[in-house]
Amino acid sequence: xxxxxxxxxxxxxxxxxxxxxxxxxxxxxxxxxxxxxxxxxxxxxxxxxxxxxxxxxxxxxxxxxxxxxxxxxxxxxxxxxxxxxxxxxxxxxxxxxxxxxxxxxxxxxxxxxxxxxxxxxxxxxxxxxxxxxxxxxxxxxxxxxxxxxxxxxxxxxxxxxxxxxxxxxxxxxxxxxxxxxxxxxxxxxxxxxxxxxxxxxxxxx
Length: 205
Ligand SMILES: Cc1cc2nc3c(=O)[nH]c(=O)nc-3n(C[C@H](O)[C@H](O)[C@H](O)COP(=O)(O)O)c2cc1C
Description:
Radius of gyration: 19 Å
Bound molecules: flavin mononucleotide
CATH class of the domain at 9-87 and 122-184: Alpha Beta
Distance between the termini: 35 Å
């Protein structure tokens, strides 16, 4: 799909066709396209829980203020950011070492900078996890549309409940969930609501 069209056609779809499931290959294609999203130092501090079984979707729906779309969707994604994704245990640093021809100094300096920028306090660790993983979330929604799959981001959720019930680790930040599936064509989607344009949101200095 043309890039501009993709932006116009992505919508938060409240009604999913329960009979249509996303096949495994399409699911993988979407995620493997979406991971082209940018991240600080390319650290990719994120992971995704793909909720597929009816049982797990029902559990998630209860923790999403009972929003029906959670179980109507073919799959739900739990988008998770890693607050410690900047630290030396991230294997991306090894790949970086290779990509800079084994120059350890470059990697060490980057690790020090990342630690001081993103690891200096809980606040900045959360910022790091949220900013990076939110870009992944947006990327997933656009990639899905490219594959003809509809989405719906949700943050009207019980963050603590999902963290606990889906066994997120202490260093992991729940960012949002995304319902994915195919729009129920027997329903109609409200027209898109207007957006604040450049003149309203941008300041040139
Ligand atoms: C982070 C985030 C959280 C959202 N949470 C909810 C939600 O819990 N329930 C809901 O019905 N819509 C939710 N939305 C959808 C927004 O209402 C929707 O994106 C907005 O109205 C614009 O519509 P559009 O996505 O169709 O362009 C959320 C959107 C975002 C980006």
